[in-house]
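Changelog-adjacent note: as of this version, every example in the card shows the full chain rather than a window. The one below runs 406 residues end to end.
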Amino acid sequence: MNLAKDRDATALFESHHLLSPRLKMEKILSKYKVVEKGVANDLKLLDKRDDGAHYEWTNYDSDPFMNDIKQVLIDYLQPIARQRGCTLYQASKATPRRLFMIGILFVTFLATIPSYINGKYWTLFVTPQLAWVCSVNYWHDCLHFSLSSDWRINAWLPYVMPLLCSPWMWYHQHVIGHHAYTNIGYKDPDLAHAPQLLREHKSISWKPLHQTQGTLRRITSVWSIAVGMGLNIFSDLRANLKLSYNNVVPYIKLSQPRMIAHIVGRFYYFYMTFFWPFLVFPPSKALLWAIIPNVMYSLTFMINSQINHLTDECSDAYDTNFFKHQVVTAQNFGIHSWFCGFYSGHLNLQIEHHLFPNVNHCHLRHLAPMVEKVCMKHNVPYHKAKGYVDAFQKHFHHTKEMSKRQ
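Full-length structure tokens:
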């Protein structure tokens, strides 16, 4: 509710309530309908462009594709709910096996910290990778409300390991912006992280500097600073100063207590990742500890996030049907690969993730074959790559194409 305040929240609402009976949800919503004359005249959206015009919601409830997708999810979760004696909503969250795996990852990551602090060189590469698999396998799910059915767990756990960015920023970038308006220009903030350096969508104005973006050197140089310098510094500062995330997602000014908490959290991040090495190591070694782990983590995040939507097939795809749009703008990769699923935190199943954002990722590999059949039935393109190499090649080709003046 807090994320939806003063926004058109139709897309957010519909994508997070597939398991809720329609009549029940309408009954709840009717309690909050503004009926007094004149009251609605004083209500203002954070963004005048936020009018829901990108999708057609008329007759949405009777749409055959949406209903088939919804039924796939219900049919999959019902046996789990019966076996566990819980609701469909509870069955959609992390399984005990998934939670156990996350626990093992945390223990393994923490086990490397003493060696990392003591300056063992092998940790420069191992610890950031463990930090990645920990965060992507729990942090991302929490912020989609999909780790637990207890909102407090989802709300507080991300603050244990805020390496990717501030959790509050991630809500705006990822949940409010990217998932609601995937690959829609001037609405999806993921299209405009570094428009001066990389052009991945036609909504970004071409600049002479983009001519050289179709090289591995340019891509890796931008990707290496995307998290440490981009998400954690520039995007954060811009959002708080301009009250807009990447100039496309309106951002409510934080109250003084929340701003103080935000600043403390950011200071803690910078101290742990950049500053403390210079307090304990010689300058040359401290520089390695301040740069290499951040670069490793950033590259890993980017390779697992950029290959999912920014391809020739997905980048400019569009559909007025919200759920069809989620399918045609996403690409799966390595669907049957255990490694791709583990290392990406199941981000390799991006189509299913966008259809069911508040369903824990551990369920998506089971849902994928059923979703693909529904897409074939309704002639909806279902994009997929063989694995990391194939997916990156498709992304790289798209990046080179977008380097051309158009």
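Structural remarks: Residues 132 and 297 are 6 Å apart (CA to CA).
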